[in-house]
């Protein structure tokens, strides 16, 4: 389930691939940001599941709250993607006139924006299909299932991102290179729209 849930959700890997390419991140930095966001994604769901189990909230209440988190994450992706797209277009056209590399130092905020979005993004299958049913046997079963799901999800995220980065780095972008920030923003907007759909 962790593998399929990650593979089926391009929002788990496309933003990292596109931003890493646009920002010129090393493979190590890309892997670290992906890992950090994966941890935030899983831990926020685990925390919600633990709260539900400890306080005896009905699964329907947890799922309703997760639905709200899902919408927040989708709209955060769209907003971030739009801002990044506009910034990227502006940067591309400024670069044409020789004003290219100004304000690159502000790039440090991007990983934290991604992390925040991933904390809001729920792991749709973790709580209802794994944690709650496993907890009926024991809390140890719930912990074990959660740990395996989290490890598989993060490993899949890292695997897809790293393989894609190797492939992406082989592509000759030529004239498109100037628009990589704008394309990254557009890809993130599409991910947000796909979450809503």
Shape descriptor reads elongated
Which class do the helix and strand fractions yield?
Answer: mainly alpha
Taking the alpha carbons of the first and last residues, their distance comes to 20 Å
Most strands sheet: none
Helix and strand string, N-terminal first?
HHHHHHHH
The rounded Rg comes to 18 Å
Mean pLDDT over the full residue set: 85
Q: Give the amount of beta strand, in percent.
A: under 5%
With helices defined by DSSP (H or I, 4 residues minimum), what is the helix count? 8
Helix residue percentage: over 70%
Instruction: Tally the beta strands.
Output: 0
Q: What is the domain tally?
A: 1
Task: Show unreliable segments.
Answer: 98-105
What does this structure look like?
The protein has 197 residues and is mainly alpha-helical. The chain has one domain (2-99, 108-168, 176-196). It has helices at residues 2-8, 14-23, 27-55, 59-96, 110-120, 126-135, 139-170, 180-196. The longest helix has 38 residues, at 59-96. The radius of gyration is 18 Å and the shape is elongated. The relative contact order is 0.24.
